[in-house]
Amino acid sequence: MANSFDLIVVGGGPAGYVGAIRASQLGLRTALVERDKVGGTCLHVGCIPTKVLLHTAERLEEMREGSEIGIVADNVRLDLDLLYKRKDRVVTTNFRGVEYLMRKNKIAVFPGQARLTGSTGVHVSAADGSETDLEARRILVATGSRPRDLPGARLDHDRIVDSTGALALRAVPRSIAILGAGAVGTEFASIFAAFGSEVTLIELLPSVLPMEDEECAAVVGKALERRGVRVRTGTAVTGAQPCGDGVRVTMRTGDGPEESIETEYVLVAVGRAPLTDGLGLEEAGVEVGRTGITVNAQMQTSVPSVYAAGDVIGGLLLAHVGSAEAEVAVEAIAGESPRPLDQSLMPRATFCIPQLASVGLTERQARDAGRDVSIGRFPFTGNARAAILGRREGLIKIVADRELGEILGVHLVGPEVTELLPEGVLARGLEATVVEIGQSVHAHPTLSEAVREAALAALGRAVHG
To answer: Range of 185's domain?
Structure first.
């Protein structure tokens, strides 16, 4: 049958298209259904365009302080039109690359909205009104997630926007309140502060980046404040209502009185929810829990022929995690014996200014788990390369078992630390100890030397500390 496949992948984001490619590599005849564009939220309105703006924000800050490194430039300014043209070029280049990979791997792409019609069937409704029915031995659901709404601050996609709406603003806001200080919130706070907006960052929990190591998150909070961001932690937003040419935001810090501010825009950045509506999951018998589709270690759902991966299953809502989950699912479908993902080995990267990156347990998590820990810290103020770059804020922090030297967590905040994180991921994956990192010679002068110094500090013998 022309529309019969070994595998149908529903969703073409980082989980879906990577899963489809891996399936093709394993010899499975594969179809992919995507209602918009392959590449998904991450490529088109998430990770990639946001990082384009962040790259410009960082360079803009550096050029404004160019005299510090001997470069004097007059009238340094942001041209938002040129920046958005570059953003669109970067996104389009990557999009064309994903389309090419679909053709290269002989993956049949069906544009349209998918709905499961049973344990092996998918109905596709295309935008032009056409309908197609597909059949396969296995189905992989990888539909991703959508921004969460906030009671009292409902999105109107005009003055109260989500991250997609924030990327679509064609002028730099005079002022903006950002609700939520996780990865999305801190990244947009960094962008808009560098671009000249008056930014208020509001977080219900006690610190920015509340899921990260407290010490490293505090560095980001202080850095944002130095850049002019008004950071309000421990603060609940009680309402956000359009008024005139802006929005009135009401909030309460702790048990204090309610107060309000007026701002041109509000960005709601309080997390994301799995995208399961309209997929026919319940009718097909697929169990959906509070955080997403329920799966086992092989990414198999309650229906044996249906698998799921990426944001739609909850957990760490990160593109690279979704890709890894999809690879596990597809290898299991192909009869392989994939190693289940260890969530403690999944890297986390936030591209705020300065960047924060981590893997494994925070210091608090390790202590709460009853581990006797040794903490190794090394600040970038003691690193020669950071001094050369003129970007000395931040530190490397390693959480280790005191007796065994086992690395429990690696936490980095500072310049380009997302590029240093793989050393920590690899060390944890290979069960390396702080002794082994400390004995590994790192090139000089590099930022990576700070990782070795932190490992040595955990042993009580940092050279430059």
So the answer is: 160-270
